[in-house]
Amino acid sequence: MGGAVSAGEDNDELIDNLKEAHYIHSDLVERAFRAIDRADYYLEEYRDSAYKDLAWRHGNIHLSAPCIYSEVMEALDLHPGLSFLNLGSGTGYLSTMVGLILGPFGVNHGVELYADVIEYAYQKLDYFIKTSESFDKFEFCEPSFVAGNCLEIPPESRQYDRVYCGAGVQRDHEEYMKNLLKLTKIRRTGQSSWETKKIISVSFAPLALPQHNTNGEPKTVPLPTFEVRTLQELARIAIRHTLRVTTDNGGGQPRGQGSFGGGRGLGVSGLHKYGPRFKRRRVHHRRHCTSVVLAHKRVVSNADPTPAPLDNNNNNHGGQEDGQRRAAREEEEEEEAEKETGELLPAEPPINILRERILVLPLPEPLKMYLLYCREK
């Protein structure tokens, strides 16, 4: 299923279309979707299709349509500190978005039938942690995946606050895990009572049936273990949280205050409300002009290859402009350029202030890298 909304040129435009069609209606879910670029979970040769509202499959790798994931995220009603189990966790795209909301003290587990897909999911998770600016904006509950058939989970396994299954359950297994031939929200209302609500009509591929061992005994799939965080991990979480919430918003005022507490997730103020979204800039072209516009707004004539000197305090041509006036002037120039051409410049990424603050701490390099989750400088 898919095609409910128009395709976008990028991840933000896709999210805009999902909001306009009322598939996304909460700020929390919107932030999670904007923080993770859907195209990062595609194979490189298929990235051009990432912003269409369509499912994608290549071999065992599968992604549901964006409208399905947005309905799922809204229906899960997630909060920091909850436990979540993703049955058929696939690429880990959904689990990673969920982890942004659960925060560092939630539980985020997945079961996937194919071992090669789990390897793919961990590659994408590692890429997100080590390269995405969004990772430093939110406190994250890292997902853990195990290979196996989700119909072979032992009955004595732990229970979860939220469970999602992206496949159809055969009638014989309805008692094991309620019928999900259509996307359904099931809420426990008592020891043996349930409330069922149809969310959206959608056909899923059926779950693979459970198998037996050579001795005739049914196979079992142990879920990921739940481990209490070490003191070292708690210290890293606390330090990153403190650096994050005391970051300036650009005007000298703190972004957030308050002590570090358990269960903080995406709902806590980050370095940017929506993650990687930022204003697009336009190409500044002037027709029949032989000048080249540089980043510092200095013009280099084709007839004179020597660039003009940059402004400084003693440059009378530059004047004594403060930061606000200069920013306003550049904004006016960009708006003027928009009237002349519609071409887009690549968006300028925001400064990762958390990362900068960690790098200037008076700490040994290995400790800095630990705080950065072993990122390259």
Could you outline the blueprint of secondary structure elements for this entry?
Elements: H1 11-20, H2 27-35, E1 56-58, E2 61-63, H3 66-76, E3 83-87, H4 93-102, E4 107-112, H5 115-131, E5 144-147, E6 162-165, E7 183-188, E8 194-200, H6 231-245, E9 281-282, E10 292-293, E11 299-300, H7 323-340, E12 344-345, H8 353-359, H9 365-371
Parallel strand pairs: 3-4, 3-6, 4-5
Antiparallel strand pairs: 1-2, 7-8, 9-12, 10-11
Helix pairs in contact: 2-4
Could you describe the 3D structure shown?
It is a single chain. The chain has 377 residues and is of the alpha/beta class. It is built from nine helices and twelve strands. It has helices at 11-20, 27-35, 66-76, 93-102, 115-131, 231-245, 323-340, 353-359, 365-371, and strands spanning 56-58, 61-63, 83-87, 107-112, 144-147, 162-165, 183-188, 194-200, 281-282, 292-293, 299-300, 344-345. Strands 5-4-3-6 form a four-stranded parallel beta sheet, covered by helices on one side. It has a two-stranded antiparallel ribbon with strand order 1-2. Helix 5 (115-131) links the parallel strand 4 and strand 5 (144-147). Helix 2 (27-35) crosses helix 4 (93-102). The chain is globular and about 80 Å long. The model is unreliable at 178-183, 250-263, 267-276 and 278-320 (pLDDT under 50).
Strand order across the largest sheet: 5-4-3-6
| Largest pleated sheet | 4 strands, parallel
Assign an overall shape. globular
Mean pLDDT, all residues: 74
Poorly predicted regions are 178-183, 250-263, 267-276, 278-320
Sequence of secondary-structure elements = HHEEHEHEHEEEEHEEEHEHH
Number of DSSP E strands: 12
Going by helix content, strand content and strand pairing, the class is alpha/beta
**What's the number of helices?**
9
Assembly status? single chain
Helix fraction? 25-40%
How far apart lie the N and C ends? 42 Å
Provide the gyration radius in Å. 25 Å
